[in-house]
Amino acid sequence: MSTKILALDTATENCSVALLVDEKVYVRSEVAPRDHTKKVLPMVDEVLKEAGLTLTDLDALAFGRGPGSFTGVRIGIGIAQGLAFGADLPMIGISTLEAMAQGVYRQHGESQVACAIDARMSEVYWGRFSRQEDGTWAQTDAECVTPPQTAADNSQADESTWFTAGTGWDAYSEQLEGIKFATEKSKVLFPDAEDIVQLAKFELAKGNTVDAEDASPVYLRDTVAWKKLPGRE
Predict the structure, then answer these.
(1) Where does the Gcp-like domain lie (predicted)?
(2) Over the chain (233 residues), what is each successive 10-residue block's mean pLDDT?
């Protein structure tokens, strides 16, 4: 049976779209932190035209559900929902952290990945993932938002080398120096739809889809404490 999944992600500075048609993947990706709304739909049109398909030919629409930039995650899910509604497609939300782990496997062939996205406010979106024999990923450290120093302090030593992924490693290099396991730097800084679509294939096979109206983001940071201006307490 043919599998056709469209994936898009705008959760970080990277804007990306990928279309999986059986084993062939059509991709578009560009680091464009302020132009997601301008670039993502043309990218969708391009990959569909390249494959000779329309939205109604697809089996599902996958999206980066976060964590990431609040605005970026909202843009991605909003556009994905609009496309899914129009074509009556089920949706699949994929962790941006897990997508980066998949990216490390795609680029380096490594199966143990420590992910840290710069979450601003002196925190990182953190998670560690181990690739399983069936191609899925298990969480060694559950996804969370945490100060990088806390991630280092709470890390557990083991004999493995973990490849790093994400902008958090460079943004908080000093705080993460105390990590208790060996690390090696990868090329992966951002999630990419090319990896999201591969993870979505497993979820679709399991029937793990939602209706468009039920698709939801994962911010990890549920509340943001803003300092009040003087006189406005």
Answers:
(1) 30-227
(2) 93 98 97 94 98 98 97 96 97 98 98 98 97 97 97 94 98 97 97 98 97 95 47 37
66 and 18 assigned to the same domain = yes
Range of the domain at 142: 97-185
**Domain match, 156 and 172 both:** yes
**95 to each of 127, 143, 211, how far by Cα in Å?**
10, 9, 18
- CA-nearest of 2, 185, 171, 18 to 94 is 18
Give the C-alpha separation, 194 to 16, whole Å: 8
Cα separation, 17 vs 196, whole angstroms: 9
| pTM for the full predicted model | 0.93
**What DSSP element (H or E) covers 27?**
strand 24-31
Residue for token pair 């209706």: 211
The residue among 214, 201, 160 whose CA lies nearest residue 183 is 160
Spatial contact of 130 and 140, defined as CB atoms under 8 Å apart: yes
